[in-house]
Amino acid sequence: MDWFLIALAAPFLWALVNMADKYLVTNYSGEKKSSGALVLFSSLIGIVAAALIGVFTTGTFAISALDKILLVITGILSICYIVLYLKALETEEISAVITWTLMIPVFGYLLSFLFLGETLAHKELLGSSIIFLGAVVLSIDFTHVGLLFKKRIALLMVGTCLMYATNGVIFKFVASADSFWVSSFWEYVGLAFGGIFIFLFFGSYRRDFVRNIRTSGGFIFFINVISEFSTIAGNLLTSYAILIAPIALVYMVGAFQPLIVFIFTGLSTKFWPKLVTEDFSRKALIPKLIALVVMLVGSAVLFL
């Protein structure tokens, strides 16, 4: 099961990126905790990725115009879900944000059923429903007197997961194992176009980006470069895996990511509190554990 090992490497890389994102949003995004600089770092790195792929890949212009357009759209969608994801990180704990990514396989199932002809069995529908239930539990803040449904994070992360799943379906529809690098080239061209558009027409994002470059200099640039190339590596691994295995199966491997993030944040809170800290009191911890267990049970129902 080579696809499984390929897909499993991505959540480890992304969990490290999630930690870096939360650290940067918390410490280097100004008083308003704006994520504009990180959005531009994430998107403009597409210029570098596309250039590197273009140098070492032949036939990048050999695919049809429609395929190019669809792949560029996937890059633009990447910018959109990055914006939503970072907005969620501005005010929410990282474990609460990342656990919502378990919704991606649900959307992956639905979209692949509608557009790629993948069928849904009864147990798959049941598993998807259980995952959704766990996500609802996760969106409730039990630390307040009375229950508080976090509508903002729910909307942001549902949008993130839907766009991410759409990306995978479009990529698999267009690409093949033989055209993987060509397809990835056009995807990162779209990512770069999106970043350039934001830089030119979104003044607050541009100012945040320039301010971070001026005030944080080499350190934040180094962290962002390492983080973005780790993201690219994880994305490429996942994109390749969905070409040789069903989309939903690959996305379900991503269910390990919230668990990895949960472990990382626990270790950080205990040993490196200046990096990332979270509320691990019993009142805050127990609902998170319940939500994780419920969503993993849903994942097990889907595939066992």
Keywords:
12 helices, mainly alpha, globular, single chain, 2 strands, two-stranded antiparallel sheet, 304 residues
Please, could you describe this protein's structure?
With 304 residues, the chain is an all-alpha fold. The protein has helices at 2-27, 36-56, 65-91, 94-99, 104-115, 122-138, 151-174, 180-201, 203-244, 247-253, 256-271, 282-303; strands spanning 140-141, 148-149. A two-stranded antiparallel ribbon has the order 1-2. Helix 1 packs antiparallel against helix 9 and helix 1 (2-27) packs across helix 11 (256-271). The longest helix is centred in the C-terminal third of the chain and has 42 residues, at 203-244. The two termini are 16 Å apart.
As a percent range, the share of helical residues equals over 70%
The portion of residues forming beta strands comes to under 5%
SSE string, helices as H and strands as E: HHHHHHEEHHHHHH
N-to-C CA distance: 16 Å
pLDDT averaged residue by residue: 83
Summarize the structure.
The protein has 304 residues and is an all-alpha fold. The protein has 12 helices and 2 strands.
Give the secondary structure arrangement, pairings included.
Blueprint: H1 2-27, H2 36-56, H3 65-91, H4 94-99, H5 104-115, H6 122-138, E1 140-141, E2 148-149, H7 151-174, H8 180-201, H9 203-244, H10 247-253, H11 256-271, H12 282-303
Antiparallel strand pairs: 1-2
